[in-house]
Every structure is written in C-alpha cells, then in structure tokens.
Amino acid sequence: MQTDDLSDIIPKLKEDEIQLVVIGVDFDDAEYGFKEENKDATKAQAVDELGIPRVKSTKPVASYKGFLTLGNPEQYETAMAIDIERYPKIMAATTPSASKFVVRSDMGDATQSTMTMNGEDGQNGSNDGLAAVKTAMTYQVVDTNAPGGKRDVDRDELSKGYEYGRTAVHISESDRNVTTYETTPGLDVVGFVDKNQYERYLDMSRAHLIIGQRGNEKASMALSSFIHALYELDSYAVARLVPKENKEPRTILLAPSIEPDFECLYDIELPFAEDMRSYKFPPLDRVVTVSGKEIKIHRNLPNEDLLDAMSDYVDSMDLSIFGKDDEGAPTEYMPMDETYTPMLHRIHQVIKHRAVFPDAEPPPPYEILTRYSHPPDELVQNAQPALDRVLEAANIKKVPPKARGRRGRKEAPKPLSELDIGALLAQDPKRKHKRIDPRNAIPEFRQLIIQAEEDSAVRDACTQLKNIVFDWIRHSVGNSGYGRALEAIRVMREEMVDMETPAIYNEIMQELRTKLLAGDLGEGRGEMRYHVVTKKLGLIKASDLPGGASDDEVSKWRAAG
C-alpha cells in the first residue's frame, strides 16, 4: 500500500465524506508480535470462495421453433401438431482460444497501428507494442515452366470437386444444387420404443429439451398430455428432426421428464448405420474353444470368490454416500453442480493472474479443480481391506521388470529331447559358415542371435536377414511377399531392442528407405514403405532406447521423398 500521498488523500476523503472500509483476512504479524484473538472467519471464508469457479449463465437460444407432429396434419384431421421450442440442455463448454501477436519494430507514435476488433488496421489502438498476425493462403499447381516448378493460381480460378476412386469429379457452382438434399423444417414422430430396450451407448450428441411454445397454453397442455402418455407407458419416441431448410435430417430420441414444477421432453441424437462401429471381442464370462465348445470354468475366468471380492470392493468405493451435508448426513461426494471443467477454469485463472503479474509464475490450480482427479484418501484407506481380498482371490503376484541388454544372459530354450542343438548344428558341415536359409529365415536368425558372442556376429546375422528381406521384396508378385518381409523386419527390430543395439537396425532401415525410393527393389514398391510406417516398424527412437535416432531423423525417414 502506497503511503506517499496520504497527507493529500485524507483531507479529500473527509471533504467528500467518503467512508473507507478495509476488509482483512489475517493481520497477525509475528515480527511485530501482534495476534488478534477470536477473529471472525467470515473474511477467510470469502477468500476461499474466490477459489470456487463461477459458472457463466447463458442466454437460452432456441435451436428449433416449429411443430412436433405425429402423422401428416395436411392430409389427416386426426394428426397431432404441437407448437414447441427446443433449447440446448447439455453442451460442452469451450476454452478461450489464444490469438497470435508479434512485437512491432516500428514503435513510433506516428506510424504505430494495431488491429481493431473487426480485424482491420487502426491508428488509435493501444500502445502495447503488439500487432496482430494476419494469415494469407496461396494456391499452387505444378507447372514445369514456372520458377520452382509451381505456379500460383487465384482462388477464383479453382473449382470444387469430389474424389471418386482416383478420379476427380467436378461439380460447378451452377450445378451445386444437385448435391443438396432438399428438406423442410420439422420434427416428426416416426414411432415409439420401449424404455427398457434402448441401449445407452446410442447417445451420440448434446442433449436438448423441448417445451411448449411460450405463452401458448394450448400447446403446453397438449405437450403435457404427450409427455404423460410416454411416461405412463415407459416408452420413448423416435423422431425425425430438420432444424432449418435443406439441413441434413437427424433421428432423435424423445424421453419424457416430469418434475413437480416442470415438464419437458429431453432429446438426444441417434446414430445412423454409417455411424455405428461393430467390433467382435471374446466373451468375458466363458471361453470358446476352436471346436465351438463353451467352457464356464477356466483359469482365465473369475471364480465365485473373486466375483464376490470384487463386488465388495466396488461397494466399498461407493461415492454416492461418501460426502457429508451441512447436518453431517451421508450424501453424494461429487455432485454435478460442483464438478467443474479443470482445463477451462485453469486457463481463466492463469489469464487473470498473468494480466496483473506479467512476469510472475502462475499460482497452483484451485483445490476444487483437482479434488475429483483422484479418489479421496479416506475412501481408499477404508477400501484397502476389500482390495486385499481381491488380490488374494485373484492370486496377484508382482512380476519382475523385463531385463534390458539380454546378450549373454538369455538362456536358450531347451528341447524336450534334452539334446544339445547347438553342438549338433556346429557338427553339421553345411552350418560351418552359419548362413541363414531363406526358407527358414526367421528361426535361424533368432538362433544366430542367441549364439552370438560378439557385435560382429550380430551384425552379420542382421545383414544376412536384410539381404533376404530385400530379395523377397524385389521378387514379390504385387504385394504377395510383403507379409513375410514385414514379419522378418519386426523380428529383427525386437531382437535389436532387446540387445540394446538400435544402430544396426536403424542403418538397415535407412538403406531400405533409400532402395525403395530409388526403385532398386523394383518399380512401384513404395507401398512396402507405407506398410512399414503404419505397422510402426520404423527407426528406433532415442526416447525409446539410448543410441536411437533423433526426432528429426525419424521425421525425415517417414517423409515421402
């Protein structure tokens, strides 16, 4: 608090009869030996309230105003048509976006200009030394006669089109209406579905609420009758929605909601067939053998003891009654109206702090923003006995970490015959030079890696497998040989990672890329490099293993040319 001008400020306050109220939280000062006893906690509570985000109230904007129809009112007198209004109920809050600015070099008063709110240059802007960054986009086409092999074209010369296979289908602006699906605004009930038959995973969008037209008692009464009919029959309505003319139609589900002082329909968008993703996974409650037999008791299936222990553990982690209300009674631990978006309010917190203290480090996030990012300690402590029973029932054991750099430490697998395979191979005159047979390349490569005692032996084995892979690619009919080549590359990569020798593998992959781009392995072999990239068989990065490739080298290797 600046005290230099207090002699002038005090007479002015008295002259204008200004009352100065100073609100303090804690004026205790150990240095001066001052401590106030029995302080009122109201001020401290007020400061704590500043750490609770304030939810912004939004003005309701209708996304649809029109009729809710059942049947065609233009053809049938018995059809239903209700004036309704539709408003968003649940919508994801967006975080504020940052703008790009540069520090101006021309700081003179006569030449300084800034960006106004409409995006145009203005002479009366703020003198903060910043200028907004403008974005310019240019369009180029390949032209061998132009400098650099590309020629700039004006946007007006461009036309839109669609890709059909490898063919560009051009549709002019005058014919653009042929791609428009003509629709008229409306909300038409298509049918009804039993409440218990609806699957929750079909919810695909934000939720809206539908009410009768405001000020129209007849519409409100009619909609209330429709809502009560759905509620009493435990049913949902399926409707077709077109919010505006020529907008794409949507299929939505209408669910009734009845409260003591409010009735409405909640709607959620339903997926079309193209929106569904169908996956098949093995069942969790049984094991299906190759012959189709179903096994209910298996070592990979939970037994009754494990199911009971897990059920008790889930019950012990119940959050619905872990909280306490003002009277100390059990209540919900994290109610929805107290669960705030951490990212949104953290950004607001940092912006406000940086605006006041430009050079200071931002404060830690508010406690309420991180409160629900982990289970409460007391709940975890109370549930520990139940968790211990789960670990005991599931026979959980700690697995030691995988050893790195296994060379000289990995014990070769022992055959059932207990014969010394290495000695037998060493006695074979055909194995004198330890050449890898392309017909059995991967097993023999692994055998050589296990027996290798020097780096030269490892490099020789990788070189042999590399030449075999190159030969498979070169003589592949189409992409028929890519599969075994990719498998050999995968095995080589795994072995080099285990032996902590990424340099050998990276050298081979660099050579593979060079030969594929140069066409040394045959014309049209670029697809092979695409498969290597998509299957994540590229260079071993330094972040994964010491001595690996840098991020720039990895990016350059993935580049097309």
UniProtKB/TrEMBL annotation:
Residues of the Ku domain: 150-287
Q: Entry's SMART domains? A: Ku78 (SM00559)
Location of this chain's protein in the cell? Chromosome, Telomere; Nucleus
Which reaction(s) does the protein catalyse, per the Swiss-Prot or TrEMBL entry? ATP + H2O = ADP + phosphate + H(+)
| Enzyme Commission identifier(s) | 3.6.4.12
Q: Name one GO biological process term.
A: DNA recombination
Q: Which residues form a coiled coil?
A: none
Which EC class heads this enzyme's classification?
hydrolase
Which keywords fit this entry according to its UniProt record? Answer: ATP-binding, Chromosome, DNA damage, DNA recombination, DNA repair, DNA-binding, Helicase, Hydrolase, Nucleotide-binding, Nucleus, Telomere
Which GO MF terms are attached to this record?
Answer: ATP binding; damaged DNA binding; DNA helicase activity; double-stranded DNA binding; hydrolase activity; telomeric DNA binding
Q: Which GO terms describe its cellular component?
A: chromosome, telomeric region; Ku70:Ku80 complex
Top-level taxon of origin: Eukaryota
Q: What is its main location?
A: nucleus
Q: What does this protein do?
A: Single-stranded DNA-dependent ATP-dependent helicase. Involved in non-homologous end joining (NHEJ) DNA double strand break repair. DNA-binding is sequence-independent but has a high affinity to nicks in double-stranded DNA and to the ends of duplex DNA. Binds to naturally occurring chromosomal ends, and therefore provides chromosomal end protection. Required also for telomere recombination to repair telomeric ends in the absence of telomerase. KU70, of the KU70/KU80 heterodimer, binds to the stem loop of TLC1, the RNA component of telomerase. Involved in telomere maintenance.
Give the family from UniProt: Belongs to the ku80 family.
Its recorded name reads ATP-dependent DNA helicase II subunit 2
